[in-house]
Amino acid sequence: MPLLPATSADPELRPLCLLLMPRALEGFLLRDQAQDLLRAPGVVAVDPPSVPYGALGRLPGLLADLLASGQARRLVRTLARDARRSPDAARGGVPRVVVIFHPLQYILARAIIAQAGGDCELWYGRWDRYENAYDAGPRMRARLTELHEQAAGRARITFVASEALAEIERSAGREATLVPLSADGFPAPDPLGGRGPDGERRPPVVAVSLGHLGWRTDWALLHEVSRRMPELVLLLIGAWHDDECAQDPDYAACRSAPNLVWLGAQDDEAAARLILCADVGIIPFKVEPFNDAGLPFRILKYALLGRRTVSPPLAGAQTWGNAVTFAPDAHAFVAALRAAAGTRAAPDVALREWALQQTAVQQNAPLWERLREAGIDVRGT
Questions:
Q1: Are 15-178 and 205-363 in the same CATH fold?
Q2: What whole-number distance in Å separates Cα of residue 89 and Cα of residue 326?
Q3: What stretch of H or E contains 272?
Q4: What is the pTM of this model?
Q5: What is the CATH number of domain 15-178?
């Protein structure tokens, strides 16, 4: 645990508010609100202690208090020492507020308050019914209930995330301050798509790629398309292959592009429903001999769901050219994708009907004919 500053016997030490973090800040559910408070010079985050809060809660009461007392003593002394060495130290001072976000933290919090002095107050944040946690057995639930009652009874402020939690506190004869959740750090791309450099509004486009993501993929094309189309969401269904592309800078750029969503391999049922979320399918293949002459299976799969395909000018794809928009470069690719905006709400029914007719029986017709000519018994088929 990083150790912070002070003691009530030193009035010259600045007062501190300690946020006892249940986990590292990056993984904390209330990270945005914690970061907001941490803008104040007198608010300091304290990382989880070396003996985890859960372990303290499972120990017998006296042993837990003994360990917490040692942790608190080292913390408060270090804060005071740092403040005396450098009055401007960012972490130096004396605890005046200790904030907890889980009842298991109360064991350490009350030890810190005891070390800091009687004018140090407790704040208790409650965003869940911790005592009903799925992973807590009967014994731990009883312990959590006990610690919750102690923390809520002692807290100068109990702040809760919902009116339902506030009502629970009121029914117990306690006051609670409503402090709902915030999600400042959660990405919020414009759901209307935003405007391009020309001022024209660009509606969002959802595209999908189904299949291999490795050597065959034109990463330079995808990188350029994603860069030119901030309104694009590209769902990448399929395993990606770092072993094939790790040295490609365009691949690295695509791996980190916020508008490319890497979903990994999916079974056919899941893939079909993901395609339903998209406006258009793509074939992001390089135009080279290995890719050029084959017939990409995904064209038919997209068409079965009423979605056209945007593809580089691959010769083999011309076989199903009625279902494909060919785009020779990134500029044309972007234009074709933008033209498909909204298809997910109005799929191409005629294209779907065509695709449904491309059955194995239909496609195998020349082979069936030759079987009959060769005298093979095909009765009952």
A1: yes
A2: 63
A3: helix 268-276
A4: 0.82
A5: 3.40.50
Strands 121-126 and 157-160 come out as parallel
168: left (phi over 0), alpha (psi -120 to 50) or beta: alpha
Tokens of 195: 């405007």
pLDDT classification of 86: cutoffs 50, 70, 90: low
Contacts of 309 (CB under 8 A, 6+ apart): 280, 281, 282, 283, 296, 298, 299, 302, 303, 317, 323, 324, 325
Structure tokens at 372: 């009959």
Tokens of 289: 């001999």
What is the secondary structure of 122-176 as a DSSP string? EEEEE-S-GGG-TT--HHHHHHHHHHHHHHHHH-SEEEESSHHHHHHHHHTT---
- Greater model confidence, 379 or 19: 19
Of 60, 36, 34, the C-alpha closest to 47 is 34
CATH number of 205-363: 3.40.50.2000
Residue 143: closest CA among 50, 59, 71, 52: 59
Rounded Cα distance between 301 and 293, Å, is 19
In terms of Cα–Cα distance, which of 253, 260, 254 is closest to 233?
Answer: 260
CA gap 290, 156 in Å, rounded? 70
Question: How is the chain split into domains, by residue range?
Answer: 15-178, 205-363
Distance separating alpha carbons of residues 31 and 26, to the nearest angstrom: 7
